[in-house]
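Ticket #4471: structure export looks truncated?
Reporter: QA, pipeline team
Priority: medium

Steps to reproduce: submit the single chain below to the structure queue and open the exported record.
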Amino acid sequence: MSRRAPSRRAPAVVADRRAIRDTVDNWVLWRDSGDWERFATVWHPDGWMTATWFQGPAKDFIEVSRQGFNRGVMILHTLGGWTCDVAGHRAISQTRMTINQRAPIDGVLVDVVCMGRFYDFFEKRKGRWAIVRRQPIYEQDRLDPVDPSAVLSLDPTLLARFPEGYRHLAYLQSKNGFNVKSDLPGLRGPVVEALYAEGRAWLAGSPRPGKPR
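Actual output as written to the record:
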């Protein structure tokens, strides 16, 4: 019984996936440690970043992240499972992630943990994979005082302004002067379904990576 010869493209696809995953890992390590020169290399020049507190070109995100880091803003990330769909020189990468932010609310130091995914539009240009658009998906979060004996009362009206997936993160950031976007994708619903449709279109050759929020 004859065996099918392995595809000649298989090693190239493995190398592409490895390069994409390396870029995802480097984003977190270099951003959270303040390695701004190398952090800039994970993006293409027209890269776009959306976060709860920022929406705009990657070059501007790098600069405001640098400014926040120097002021002592504490936002850290951890990564988990990863999957990637590659179609020629295009890819959609999804990575399980956790955002951790520590800051005061009304004089009480708290930690917020928000779980979700990085949904990334990748493109290979001149042999280099890099991010064209990053859109986090926010699925679930929680808030805890750093001192478990501290008493904290949240404003229910402010809390209710934000989607369930990042409600406490948005509350913390709003209390610390950030202007937080209130219609970002969560685990379910039309907003995240529209994002998935943009991802499919990107893999199929659409001229733009959707309509960044």
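Status: closed, not a bug. The export was complete when the record was re-opened. Leaving a note from the reviewer for reference: The two ends are 54 Å apart (CA to CA).
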